[in-house]
């Protein structure tokens, strides 16, 4: 079942990444070369497994944030290239670990690494990628960069643990949920953006602006991800639709539907999310209840709010092509819901 909302006009001019990708194309090519080089290992399984995910068609959104932020800030050097690769290594490592925790079978539209090579190999190669990321950070030589990215790595791990603690708990509130997604998703968006200001040696006000942009963009991105889990087509999502539901994850659409429902409906959510006692028809019923209580459309509205905050944060910067592309990126992240 699809998200029920009037889409006329939304499809008139669907946002895309074309402009942003074109602006950073040369830099991104260099980043991909660093990624391939730094994935090399005499242990054959490491580049084989890591390459399976890295080469599987991801948008490279997080490293692109580093590249575009640096260029927006007027940076003309090349430190941002390996650091953008470092951001992608951190992201890829978290995906490998996430798929093990979630027992996922699909990632980016193909079999997940753990489905192909098993959980042990996926965890260990994820550890390798974290280690590679730290090697790249140290090679940069700036303690400031090392602190931003190492702090982000720790916060992301905390966010994943917090999500584990809230899984199956229908008493999870909106504040708890927001804390989880800020840590597990928005933190890396924020770090990726901040690095651009740091390598360009920009004032703290500009670094803080990019921190705000990245944080709010990341929150909006995750809100839409949580909507898509109940409304997208599997081919578009790149993973199995309804995974969050089947795993008992309490995302904002579920929180809103639970809080707005009567006792019979709450009993449904407790059975399916807390007890994981689910039938083949339960996902469809969950979507019906979410649409009944406008849980999906209201979650999209929350994403729009955080997107607006992200856009406002860039007001400190003079107009240039990179700034315009980063503003349009906000629209792309939100309009994925349609």
Report the C-alpha radius of gyration, rounded.
20 Å
Share of helix among residues? Answer: over 70%
Shape: globular
User: Which stretches are low in confidence, meaning pLDDT under 50 for 5 or more residues running?
Assistant: 1-12
Main sheet specs: 2 strands, antiparallel
Order of SSEs: HHHHHEEHHHHHHHHHHHH
Strand content: under 5%
Mean pLDDT: 90
Structural classification? mainly alpha
The CATH architecture category of the domain at 23-221 and 310-335 equals Orthogonal Bundle
Strand order of the largest sheet: 1-2
* CATH H-level superfamily title of the domain at 23-221 and 310-335: Farnesyl Diphosphate Synthase
CATH class of the domain at 23-221 and 310-335: Mainly Alpha
Spatial gap, N to C terminus? 13 Å
CATH topology of the domain at 23-221 and 310-335: Farnesyl Diphosphate Synthase
Number of helical segments with 4 or more residues:
17
